[in-house]
Amino acid sequence: MQNAQTAGPVRIGLIVGSTRPGRRSAAVADWVGRTVAEHPDVRAGDAVVETLDLAEQDLPLLDEPVPALFGDYRRPHTRRWAALVGACDAFLFVTPDYNRSLPAALKNAVDYLYAEWNDKVAGMVTFGVQGGTRAGDHLQTVLGEVRVTVVPTRVSLGLFTDFDFSGWPQGDPTAPGRLAPAADRASALERMVTEIVTWSRALRPAEQAGVAVGSPELVG
Ligand SMILES: Cc1cc2nc3c(=O)[nH]c(=O)nc-3n(C[C@H](O)[C@H](O)[C@H](O)COP(=O)(O)O)c2cc1C
Fold this sequence. Notes:
One of its GO terms (cellular component) is cytosol. One of its GO terms (molecular function) is FMN binding. This protein is α/β, with parallel strands linked by helices. The chain has one domain (about 10-220): Rossmann fold, CATH 3.40.50.360. About 35% of the residues lie in helices and about 20% in strands. The protein has a 5-stranded parallel sheet with strand order 2-1-3-4-5, with helices on both faces.
Protein backbone atom coordinates (compact mmCIF):
# COMPACT_ATOMS: atom_id res chain seq x y z
CA MET A 1 0.00 0.00 0.00
CA GLN A 2 1.26 3.47 -0.81
CA ASN A 3 0.40 5.93 1.97
CA ALA A 4 -3.38 5.59 1.83
CA GLN A 5 -4.90 5.38 5.28
CA THR A 6 -5.50 1.98 6.82
CA ALA A 7 -8.49 3.23 8.80
CA GLY A 8 -10.62 6.32 8.99
CA PRO A 9 -12.51 7.98 6.18
CA VAL A 10 -12.24 6.70 2.65
CA ARG A 11 -10.20 9.30 0.80
CA ILE A 12 -11.52 9.78 -2.73
CA GLY A 13 -9.44 11.64 -5.32
CA LEU A 14 -11.66 13.44 -7.83
CA ILE A 15 -9.49 13.41 -10.96
CA VAL A 16 -10.26 16.06 -13.58
CA GLY A 17 -9.21 14.25 -16.75
CA SER A 18 -8.85 16.90 -19.46
CA THR A 19 -6.63 19.95 -19.60
CA ARG A 20 -7.48 22.04 -22.68
CA PRO A 21 -8.36 25.75 -22.32
CA GLY A 22 -12.16 26.05 -22.22
CA ARG A 23 -12.59 22.41 -21.12
CA ARG A 24 -15.99 21.29 -19.89
CA SER A 25 -14.47 18.78 -17.48
CA ALA A 26 -13.98 21.55 -14.90
CA ALA A 27 -17.74 22.24 -14.81
CA VAL A 28 -18.49 18.52 -14.70
CA ALA A 29 -16.02 18.01 -11.84
CA ASP A 30 -17.51 20.97 -10.02
CA TRP A 31 -20.98 19.41 -10.26
CA VAL A 32 -19.59 16.04 -9.16
CA GLY A 33 -17.86 17.65 -6.17
CA ARG A 34 -21.01 19.51 -5.09
CA THR A 35 -23.23 16.45 -5.52
CA VAL A 36 -20.84 14.11 -3.72
CA ALA A 37 -20.59 16.56 -0.81
CA GLU A 38 -24.26 15.75 -0.11
CA HIS A 39 -23.67 11.99 0.02
CA PRO A 40 -24.50 10.57 3.48
CA ASP A 41 -21.02 9.01 3.89
CA VAL A 42 -19.35 12.32 3.06
CA ARG A 43 -21.68 14.29 5.32
CA ALA A 44 -20.94 11.81 8.12
CA GLY A 45 -17.18 12.18 7.60
CA ASP A 46 -16.83 8.53 6.53
CA ALA A 47 -15.53 9.65 3.14
CA VAL A 48 -13.64 12.75 2.06
CA VAL A 49 -13.10 14.05 -1.47
CA GLU A 50 -10.05 15.90 -2.75
CA THR A 51 -9.87 17.32 -6.26
CA LEU A 52 -6.79 16.31 -8.28
CA ASP A 53 -6.86 18.51 -11.38
CA LEU A 54 -4.51 17.33 -14.14
CA ALA A 55 -4.33 20.91 -15.45
CA GLU A 56 -2.66 21.87 -12.16
CA GLN A 57 -0.26 18.92 -12.18
CA ASP A 58 1.20 20.01 -15.50
CA LEU A 59 2.77 16.60 -16.12
CA PRO A 60 4.93 16.49 -19.27
CA LEU A 61 4.62 13.51 -21.58
CA LEU A 62 6.09 10.62 -19.59
CA ASP A 63 9.75 11.46 -19.03
CA GLU A 64 10.74 8.86 -16.42
CA PRO A 65 13.60 6.59 -17.55
CA VAL A 66 12.37 3.63 -15.46
CA PRO A 67 8.88 2.12 -15.95
CA ALA A 68 6.56 2.98 -13.05
CA LEU A 69 6.21 -0.69 -12.10
CA PHE A 70 9.70 -0.53 -10.55
CA GLY A 71 8.83 2.44 -8.33
CA ASP A 72 12.06 4.31 -9.08
CA TYR A 73 10.64 7.79 -9.61
CA ARG A 74 13.30 10.35 -10.55
CA ARG A 75 11.38 13.53 -11.46
CA PRO A 76 9.93 15.97 -8.91
CA HIS A 77 6.63 16.15 -10.82
CA THR A 78 6.32 12.33 -10.61
CA ARG A 79 6.98 12.32 -6.88
CA ARG A 80 4.43 15.08 -6.35
CA TRP A 81 1.80 13.21 -8.37
CA ALA A 82 2.69 9.93 -6.60
CA ALA A 83 2.19 11.54 -3.19
CA LEU A 84 -1.26 12.81 -4.18
CA VAL A 85 -2.43 9.55 -5.73
CA GLY A 86 -0.83 7.43 -3.01
CA ALA A 87 -2.74 9.33 -0.33
CA CYS A 88 -6.07 8.29 -1.87
CA ASP A 89 -8.00 5.10 -1.17
CA ALA A 90 -10.24 5.50 -4.21
CA PHE A 91 -10.78 7.65 -7.28
CA LEU A 92 -13.59 9.33 -9.09
CA PHE A 93 -12.50 10.00 -12.66
CA VAL A 94 -14.12 12.72 -14.77
CA THR A 95 -13.27 12.05 -18.40
CA PRO A 96 -14.55 13.21 -21.78
CA ASP A 97 -14.47 11.19 -24.97
CA TYR A 98 -11.55 12.21 -27.21
CA ASN A 99 -11.65 10.28 -30.49
CA ARG A 100 -13.43 7.33 -28.94
CA SER A 101 -11.05 7.11 -26.00
CA LEU A 102 -9.76 8.93 -22.94
CA PRO A 103 -7.71 12.15 -23.29
CA ALA A 104 -3.97 11.66 -23.72
CA ALA A 105 -3.35 13.76 -20.60
CA LEU A 106 -5.30 11.29 -18.49
CA LYS A 107 -3.63 8.21 -19.98
CA ASN A 108 -0.26 9.88 -19.40
CA ALA A 109 -1.15 10.62 -15.76
CA VAL A 110 -2.06 6.97 -15.20
CA ASP A 111 1.14 5.75 -16.90
CA TYR A 112 3.35 7.82 -14.58
CA LEU A 113 2.59 5.64 -11.53
CA TYR A 114 2.01 2.04 -10.57
CA ALA A 115 2.00 1.07 -6.89
CA GLU A 116 0.05 4.19 -5.93
CA TRP A 117 -2.93 2.92 -7.97
CA ASN A 118 -2.75 -0.72 -6.89
CA ASP A 119 -5.68 -2.46 -5.18
CA LYS A 120 -7.81 0.67 -5.10
CA VAL A 121 -11.29 1.39 -6.37
CA ALA A 122 -12.61 3.85 -8.94
CA GLY A 123 -15.83 5.23 -10.36
CA MET A 124 -16.21 7.21 -13.57
CA VAL A 125 -18.21 10.16 -14.75
CA THR A 126 -17.87 10.28 -18.53
CA PHE A 127 -19.15 12.84 -21.00
CA GLY A 128 -19.16 13.62 -24.68
CA VAL A 129 -21.46 13.83 -27.68
CA GLN A 130 -22.53 10.27 -26.90
CA GLY A 131 -21.95 10.28 -23.16
CA GLY A 132 -18.26 9.48 -23.26
CA THR A 133 -18.91 5.76 -22.87
CA ARG A 134 -16.00 4.73 -25.10
CA ALA A 135 -13.63 6.81 -22.97
CA GLY A 136 -15.03 4.97 -19.96
CA ASP A 137 -14.49 1.57 -21.57
CA HIS A 138 -10.89 2.39 -22.47
CA LEU A 139 -10.15 3.93 -19.08
CA GLN A 140 -11.47 0.80 -17.37
CA THR A 141 -9.11 -1.34 -19.47
CA VAL A 142 -6.15 0.93 -18.65
CA LEU A 143 -7.01 0.94 -14.94
CA GLY A 144 -7.18 -2.85 -14.92
CA GLU A 145 -3.50 -2.95 -15.81
CA VAL A 146 -2.59 -0.86 -12.74
CA ARG A 147 -4.88 -3.00 -10.57
CA VAL A 148 -7.69 -0.52 -10.01
CA THR A 149 -11.16 -2.06 -9.65
CA VAL A 150 -13.94 -0.05 -11.31
CA VAL A 151 -17.37 -0.11 -9.64
CA PRO A 152 -20.38 -1.09 -11.80
CA THR A 153 -22.32 2.17 -11.77
CA ARG A 154 -21.19 4.83 -14.23
CA VAL A 155 -22.53 8.30 -14.84
CA SER A 156 -22.72 9.36 -18.50
CA LEU A 157 -23.43 12.93 -19.55
CA GLY A 158 -24.32 13.76 -23.16
CA LEU A 159 -23.51 17.12 -24.71
CA PHE A 160 -27.01 17.24 -26.21
CA THR A 161 -28.88 15.89 -23.20
CA ASP A 162 -27.06 17.23 -20.15
CA PHE A 163 -25.78 20.63 -21.33
CA ASP A 164 -27.84 23.72 -22.13
CA PHE A 165 -26.55 25.83 -25.01
CA SER A 166 -29.30 28.43 -24.99
CA GLY A 167 -27.78 31.91 -24.94
CA TRP A 168 -24.78 30.92 -27.08
CA PRO A 169 -24.70 31.49 -30.86
CA GLN A 170 -25.84 28.34 -32.65
CA GLY A 171 -22.91 26.34 -34.01
CA ASP A 172 -20.25 28.20 -32.00
CA PRO A 173 -17.58 25.49 -31.44
CA THR A 174 -16.16 27.34 -28.43
CA ALA A 175 -19.51 27.56 -26.60
CA PRO A 176 -19.05 25.66 -23.33
CA GLY A 177 -22.79 25.46 -22.60
CA ARG A 178 -24.12 25.20 -19.08
CA LEU A 179 -24.10 21.84 -17.39
CA ALA A 180 -27.71 20.83 -16.71
CA PRO A 181 -27.66 17.14 -15.82
CA ALA A 182 -30.82 15.11 -16.47
CA ALA A 183 -32.86 14.17 -13.41
CA ASP A 184 -31.43 10.70 -12.81
CA ARG A 185 -27.75 11.65 -13.00
CA ALA A 186 -27.34 12.76 -9.38
CA SER A 187 -28.94 9.57 -8.04
CA ALA A 188 -26.62 7.47 -10.24
CA LEU A 189 -23.67 9.43 -8.87
CA GLU A 190 -24.87 8.84 -5.32
CA ARG A 191 -25.13 5.09 -6.01
CA MET A 192 -21.63 5.12 -7.48
CA VAL A 193 -20.17 6.81 -4.40
CA THR A 194 -21.90 4.25 -2.16
CA GLU A 195 -20.24 1.52 -4.24
CA ILE A 196 -16.85 3.26 -4.10
CA VAL A 197 -16.97 3.60 -0.31
CA THR A 198 -18.24 0.04 0.25
CA TRP A 199 -15.79 -1.60 -2.16
CA SER A 200 -12.92 0.54 -0.95
CA ARG A 201 -13.43 -0.58 2.63
CA ALA A 202 -13.64 -4.18 1.45
CA LEU A 203 -10.38 -3.84 -0.48
CA ARG A 204 -8.39 -2.27 2.35
CA PRO A 205 -6.90 -5.60 3.46
CA ALA A 206 -5.60 -6.17 -0.09
CA GLU A 207 -4.24 -2.64 -0.19
CA GLN A 208 -2.49 -3.13 3.15
CA ALA A 209 -1.11 -6.53 2.21
CA GLY A 210 0.35 -5.03 -0.98
CA VAL A 211 -0.87 -8.04 -2.93
CA ALA A 212 0.29 -6.46 -6.20
CA VAL A 213 3.95 -6.51 -5.12
CA GLY A 214 5.79 -9.24 -6.93
CA SER A 215 2.90 -10.19 -9.23
CA PRO A 216 4.72 -12.60 -11.55
CA GLU A 217 2.93 -11.55 -14.73
CA LEU A 218 4.04 -7.98 -14.17
CA VAL A 219 7.64 -8.28 -13.05
CA GLY A 220 8.61 -11.17 -15.30
C1 LIG B 1 -9.86 16.01 -29.60
C2 LIG B 1 -11.32 15.79 -29.39
C3 LIG B 1 -11.91 14.62 -29.82
C4 LIG B 1 -13.25 14.36 -29.56
N1 LIG B 1 -13.77 13.16 -29.92
C5 LIG B 1 -15.02 12.83 -29.52
C6 LIG B 1 -15.53 11.52 -29.75
O1 LIG B 1 -14.89 10.66 -30.32
N2 LIG B 1 -16.77 11.24 -29.32
C7 LIG B 1 -17.54 12.16 -28.66
O2 LIG B 1 -18.65 11.83 -28.26
N3 LIG B 1 -17.10 13.42 -28.43
C8 LIG B 1 -15.85 13.77 -28.85
N4 LIG B 1 -15.36 15.03 -28.61
C9 LIG B 1 -16.24 15.98 -27.95
C10 LIG B 1 -15.87 16.07 -26.50
O3 LIG B 1 -16.24 14.93 -25.76
C11 LIG B 1 -16.43 17.33 -25.87
O4 LIG B 1 -16.00 18.42 -26.63
C12 LIG B 1 -15.95 17.51 -24.44
O5 LIG B 1 -16.46 18.73 -23.96
C13 LIG B 1 -14.42 17.51 -24.37
O6 LIG B 1 -14.02 17.58 -23.05
P1 LIG B 1 -13.33 18.90 -22.49
O7 LIG B 1 -14.28 20.05 -22.80
O8 LIG B 1 -13.18 18.70 -21.02
O9 LIG B 1 -12.03 19.04 -23.21
C14 LIG B 1 -14.04 15.33 -28.89
C15 LIG B 1 -13.44 16.53 -28.49
C16 LIG B 1 -12.11 16.75 -28.72
C17 LIG B 1 -11.48 18.04 -28.20
